[in-house]
């Protein structure tokens, strides 16, 4: 199982980024996926999750209304669209396949002017 994230970087407050995570080594469409993040000095936290059909999505309270998780099973990819970013969103973001206990390498998102 391999998960590879992309799309992170530096963005100004109020800006947007879209993270992508390409999965391999398992039948992607069968499994739920999630995004987590870890800020400096803090524990890793769940940001958003999506079930295998794409119809069930859950979000941390801190990102509701600003972030959207989605998936494209034809591309074995899960996305995290992040809008209205603020400094508290600065963290390393990780893609996760919970059923496989598999994690991506993490990608830095920095929100700063």
Give keywords.
0% helix, single chain, 7-stranded mixed sheet, 113 residues, mainly beta
Tell me about this structure.
- Strands 2, 4, 5, 6, 9, 10 and 11 form a 7-stranded mixed beta sheet that branches. Strands 1-3-8-7 form a 4-stranded antiparallel beta sheet, with no helix packed on it.
- The relative contact order is 0.33.
- It is an all-beta fold and 113 residues long.
- Strand 9 (91-97) and strand 10 (102-103) form a beta hairpin.
- It has strands at residues 2-6, 9-11, 17-24, 33-38, 45-50, 57-59, 67-72, 77-82, 91-97, 102-103, 107-111.
Biggest sheet record: 7 strands, mixed
Report the end-to-end length measured between terminal Cα atoms.
37 Å
What portion of residues is helical? under 10%
User: What is the count of β-strands?
Assistant: 11
Number of helices: 0
Name the overall outline: globular
Give the amount of beta strand, in percent: over 45%
Cα Rg: 13 Å
Order of helices and strands: EEEEEEEEEEE
Q: Would you tell me the structural class of the helices and strands?
A: mainly beta
Oligomer: single chain
Mean model confidence by pLDDT:
97
Low-confidence parts = none
């Amino acid at each position: 199982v391999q998960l590879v994230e992309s799309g992170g970087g530096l963005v100004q407050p109020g800006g947007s980024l879209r993270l992508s995570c390409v999965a391999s080594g398992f039948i992607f469409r069968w499994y739920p996926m999630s995004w987590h993040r870890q800020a400096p000095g803090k524990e890793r936290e769940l940001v958003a999750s999506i079930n295998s059909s794409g119809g069930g999505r859950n979000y941390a309270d801190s990102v509701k209304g600003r972030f959207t998780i989605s998936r494209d099973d034809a591309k074995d990819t899960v996305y995290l669209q992040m809008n209205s970013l603020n400094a508290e969103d600065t963290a390393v973001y990780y893609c996760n396949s919970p059923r496989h206990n598999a994690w991506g390498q993490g990608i830095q998102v920095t929100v700063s002017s």
